[in-house]
Amino acid sequence: xxxxxxxTITTVLTVLLGFFWKNYSGxxxxxxxGIFIDVDHYFDYVRETGDRxxxxxxMEEMFLNLKEKKFYGLFHSYELIIIxxxxxxxxxxxxxxxxxxxxxxxxxILDALCNPVKARFYFFLYRxxxxxxxxxxxxxxxxxxx
Length: 146
Description:
- By secondary structure, the chain is mostly helical.
- The protein has helices at about 5-20, 25-35, 40-50, 55-65, 80-90, 95-115, 125-130.
- The chain has 7 helices and no strands.
- Helix 1 runs antiparallel to helix 2 and helix 5 (about 80-90) packs antiparallel against helix 6.
């Protein structure tokens, strides 16, 4: 899913959320979490290409076409959300933090629905178990039966 698509969907849902949830810090963090989770793509892009210049076009072209060999995506992880929920529930106890986690979760769900990777791909431990190799995490194309 492109950054523009993430921004559009997340912005619309943020506005709607703002009508129902009057915790504006949480609403802003929902928006930030839904979009800026993609910062981890930059680190994978630099590792993969050695190019430190930010080019959204080149980064999107690489990631959307699954041209990278490995994807670490430290923030693209359901485990991070689970840890965040536990941390907030038992220790931080901040309502606004749930907004950030909900934004992260929205982003992961959109990626899982739109990107050609296995559903388990957004579990960090799954990627770790497969040495972060993209080739093992891509959905296989269905072959025609003859």
